[in-house]
Amino acid sequence: MDLSTSMRTHMCGSLDSSDIGSVVTVCGWVDRRREHGEHLVFIDLRDHSGVVQCVVDGSHDLRSEYVVQLTGEVRRRPTDTANPDLATGEIEIEVSEVEVLSIAEPPPFPLDERTEVDETIRLRHRYVDLRKARMQRNLRIRSQVNSAIRRGMESQGFVEVETPMLMASSPEGARDFVVPSRKEPGSFYALPQSPQLYKQLCMVGGVDRYYQIARCLRDEDLRADRQFEFMQLDAEASFVGQEDVFGFISHAIAEATEVVTGVRPTDFPRISWLDAMERYGSDKPDVRFGMELVELTPVFARTEARVFQAPCVKGICMPGGVDALSRNQIDALVETCQRWGAKGLAWMKVVERDSSVVLDAGVAKFLTAEESTAVISALGAGVGDMVFLVADDRRLVRHVLGLLRLELGRPPVNEGGLHYLWVVDFPLFEGFADDGSPLPAHHPFTMPHPDDLELLEIGGDALADVRSQAYDLVLNGWELGSGSVRIHRRDIQNQIFTCLGIEPAEAQRKFGFLLDAFGYGAPPHAGFAFGIDRLVALLAGEANIREVIAFPKTQSGADPLTNAPSPIDSAHLTELGLRVPR
């Protein structure tokens, strides 16, 4: 790609031995300055493509982060000064012309990757932080991913449609960001948490296959994989089922992965929600490592050990845990599990005694020989391993051991490769309210599994067993996105509303514009959305999505660069018909 302009002939990082003897002009920032006597200075000049060494007359005042234009002849470096770790390490530019385009104050922090800098300072001076090679690489990976996603979707016949940023607040709008209307004081728009309803209306409108790289906003607590503002690939298609959606999305993901890594993933295995919870204690399992949860309830069916007299007992085995964990660390793990809701954490060491493999320490003394042998066998434990057991309600056991598994075994984000996983057959309801009504696990337009429709007729406790046609895509323990087959039949929709205790008048008030649209002929349709920030972070090997966003918010939701959020003046409040309590 030719990136020459009227001000430069080459990018700094594009020069190599084939350019020796050529006169070139490069532009960029002074990365480093090294003086050799009074009349000779070595300058490392940097742009987004890399760094090149330039030899400059010492009379020029060139300081760190000055923006300069340098012209000179490319020559080979002396053999003893070549830098094999640098793409341009074989050559240097003997500069004949220097022009300072912009002077700079000393940067607020070093721009090398070795120096740890407080994140607030980095974000306050993000325009400087973006010059780092790491940030340049991440933003370009993001651009590649966006382009690949668009190619992947358009090659499958999807049409990009832009949906509104100003919309009505959703019925469950507690997490909406709202915008006051100047034209109608006291009324508000909401910023979209997703284009969900609009993309379904596109299906009613005959668009057939819709996609959008959509900006969404959600007012919820921030963390490593969550920001107020986020970008997602949003897709919906008509006359399709779950299998079709898996094909569409897997293709787009494969395109994005290949353009970054050079390797196209072909394996997108599946696991049911129930299997994921039982084996990993999570509906977004990280399958890069073992330490799966093992069912031990039958082992303790007739136990005399009170600690294991519970509805559910599960365990995990930590290979080499005896040497890896000190007693203080084990005690800390017990306390952590208690904070997660467990009454305690049973731990034991696997040791060899009298030529037999047995459990020792911890609660081992409360187990019979048969129970000890059964635990070792079930967990596949060997000498030197540690075993951890939790006994309680099944949901709590899965939750605590799932977190403990990650605490003990999860590898860094950039280790173990990329493991995509579809999670399917989520429950339609996630529990019951105090009045006995079921709590929806998804939005109320999610189609139930066809084999479970009769359970809707039975109602009551049977609703807990109703599966939905909802599905998630998981990558290395991060939920990339979610989707579902939508309800398009009025009879099923009315059944769901009835189960949820939503009367017809309330349904019309909350969802009337969508229900009315369905009355004009709604095709069967299904869709999906995945977080681009999360995908890019994992492809770039970053543990925090802030590292792949140009201008993110801090963990507290603040923007140190612009000092947002900030008050607005009283005149503006008056115009909007608002009053802020003092």
- Could you give the distance between the termini? 58 Å
Basic shape: globular
Radius of gyration: 30 Å
Largest sheet: 8 strands, mixed
Strand content: 15-25%
**What is the count of helical runs?**
15
Oligomerization state: single chain
Would you kindly provide a written description of the structure presented here, covering whatever features stand out?
This protein is of the alpha+beta class and 582 residues long. It starts with 22 loop residues before the first strand and ends in a 6-residue tail after the last helix. The chain is globular. The longest helix is centred in the first third of the chain and has 22 residues, at 133-154. The protein is 27% helix and 25% strand. It has 15 helices and 22 strands. The strands form five sheets. An eight-stranded mixed sheet has the order 6-9-10-22-21-20-17-11, sandwiched between helices. Strands 1-2-3-5-4 form a five-stranded mixed beta barrel.
